[in-house]
Design goal:
The protein is an all-alpha fold. It has one domain (10-105). Helices cover 82% and strands 0% of the residues. It has helices at 10-22, 27-87, 91-105. It is rod-shaped and about 95 Å long. The relative contact order is 0.04.
Amino acid sequence: MDVSIRGIDPAIVKVIEKYAKKNKQSRNEYIKNLLKYDAQKNIMNEINRFQDEKTNTILNALSIIIERSNDLEIELQKMLALLIYASDMDQYQVDTILNKVVKKTGVDK
């Protein structure tokens, strides 16, 4: 596809020519490479923005999971205290029973 650009300031054209010669390119090649680079940069920025959004979503989900895990741990501690209180067992006996249950159910793997 061909694109024509009119009305470019002559000073800018001279700068383009200077850099084109420095890179051993024609003005046309140099401008095509500039446009290609700019398009690739914009595409990468979009990809990075998308990845940042995905990362933030994952981090938010993990934060919720950690918060719920902490809440669950507190509830388990309350249940353990209630079990000790209701059964007249000491801490060691309750821990022994709970450890056997955890091993039997495979939670401790």
